Amino acid sequence: MKIASQQARSFGADGMVQGPASGKFMLITPDRICYAGLLGRPLTREFGALTLYVSLGSPLSLKIRDGAWQSGEMFVVQADTPHQVATVDRRIGVYMIEPESVDLAQLPPELGFLATEGGAQLHHPAIREAFLALAGGDMHINAVRTRLDEFILGARMPVRQLECRVAAVVNRIKRNPSDSVNAEDYAQQVDLSFSRFLHLFKEEVGTTFRRFRAWKRARNFMCYVNANRNLTDIALETGYPDSSHFSHTVRRYWGLTPKDIMAGSRTLAVIHDASLVSTAH
């Protein structure tokens, strides 16, 4: 199912940013999210992805857990790390990398900063220039969507090789985050005991099955942020049992309620693979 919206159509057939949405976009692929726009005023957030924050104007302020606020132009935050981020002019670039897709232990030297723990402050002018080119509408989106790492980071990321049974489960969840199949069913499908499946999943992916799927569902919500849809319908379609659970989970990961996210995304151009938007069953 593909969401049709006026904002999403602000990208022309050639992939060039057009119209009023120029400068505010979110590109979503199965393994990356690339965003340039306004930050909003999020509370503590806890992404399941490795996240690179880039200032597009005034310096950023970042706080990891209960630590002190830091100021700088660029920060990297590891997955599953509670943090807060703020900036005076609210202009920000964000690059999110799904951990199961990359081997951080095999990063080339020029990308070693991505493996830094905590909220490491960075200085990489080329990364900021790449974001500014996208935000300014000077780059064709379709020209970079299949090579985001090279365009944003300047190098390819080493691919993580998961154990084949875990990889099958991971790929199914990524294709259909709203799927209601539980861990016990997945274990049976890949011919593993329940306890062995959970242990192997965490060992391979680096996080628990429950946390992994919760993040993928919350991530999938971003495909709907400028859709003219009822929040209750979106909650059910993205796999949540009710609106309360939906709102709580989205706020936990994104630091904002679904209502606030959608209110701030009316002029946001969202580009995503249609396969990311699925119907619960």
UniProtKB/TrEMBL annotation:
Matching SMART domains: HTH_ARAC (SM00342)
Species of provenance: Caldimonas thermodepolymerans
Name this polypeptide is given: AraC-like DNA-binding protein
Domain HTH araC/xylS-type: 167-264
Pfam family of the protein (one): HTH_18
GO molecular function terms noted in the UniProt entry: DNA-binding transcription factor activity; sequence-specific DNA binding
Keyword terms: DNA-binding, Transcription, Transcription regulation
Keyword Nucleotidyltransferase: no
Gene3D superfamilies (alphabetical): Homeodomain-like
This protein's record includes keyword Amino-acid biosynthesis: no
Top-rank taxon: Bacteria
